[in-house]
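re: the backbone from monday

yeah here it is again, tokenized this time
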């Protein structure tokens, strides 16, 4: 079962009279301006393998690991399945355990719902003049920024505690993951990807890293300026979207 946002927080996120969200653009959960960038991988370039920084290990198209993990619930193997799902191809999931299958299907439901939701469509259109075909990639990063920077609205567990728990769980079950996910995980943990988006600086570095490793990726460079120019809109849309995603995941899987 997907995680449920605390009821009071759900109400606050959905209340248009709740007031403006505080500007958290300068927040850095590490207190360090040199927040490590997420290392891009070869999902777009079609290569696998890793250098010492974890480059060329990033999975297919999903950039918002934190968002996926936030709504994964508490069943360890469901969390693992959701996390590794981009590396799992095809409809036949019979080679995976029942809970891993549940997590893989959850991930796919999240992606389908996200891709077609009016709020995310609005965000992608705002990004398209700058990012072109990579508007959705940039929006994934921006949504994880919104989640990390407003974590207090979304979860009772402090973000550093949550990320440490996720890293421990994922490492414990790494042997169950596809090879490319196993290759990526150590770099994710080493560079603390899950909290690296809480600052604009971290977003900018992640975008630059991606731009250097995807075909015609130059359009991603500077996309953080679009986030800054429309900061309130992106944050509001993400925080309104999350309870709707939660409600969608609570429905029976068709």
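seq for it, each position gets an aa:
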């Amino acid at each position: 079962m997907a995680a449920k946002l605390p009821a009071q927080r759900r109400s606050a996120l959905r209340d248009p009279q709740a007031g403006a969200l505080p500007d958290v653009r300068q927040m850095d959960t590490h207190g360090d301006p040199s927040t490590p960038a997420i290392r891009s991988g070869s999902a777009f370039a079609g290569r696998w393998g890793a250098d010492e920084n974890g480059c060329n290990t990033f999975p297919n198209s999903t950039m918002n690991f934190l968002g996926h993990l936030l709504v994964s619930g508490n069943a360890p193997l469901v969390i693992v399945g959701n996390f590794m799902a981009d590396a799992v191809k095809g409809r036949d999931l019979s080679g995976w355990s029942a809970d891993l299958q549940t997590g893989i299907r959850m991930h796919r439901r999240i992606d389908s719902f996200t891709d077609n939701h009016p709020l995310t469509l609005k965000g992608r259109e705002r990004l398209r003049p700058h990012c072109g075909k990579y508007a959705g990639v940039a929006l994934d990063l921006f949504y994880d920024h919104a989640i990390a920077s407003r974590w207090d609205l979304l979860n009772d567990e402090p973000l550093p505690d949550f990320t440490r728990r996720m890293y421990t769980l994922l490492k414990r079950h790494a042997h169950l993951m596809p090879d490319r996910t196993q290759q990526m995980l150590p770099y994710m943990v080493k560079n603390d990807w899950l909290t690296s988006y809480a600052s604009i600086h971290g977003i900018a570095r992640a975008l630059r890293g991606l731009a250097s490793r995807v075909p015609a990726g130059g359009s991603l460079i500077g996309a953080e300026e679009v986030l800054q120019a429309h900061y309130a809109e992106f944050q509001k849309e993400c925080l309104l979207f999350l309870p709707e995603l939660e409600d969608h995941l609570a429905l029976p899987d068709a």
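Residues 16-22, 26-61 have pLDDT under 50 and may be disordered. The chain has twelve helices and no strands.
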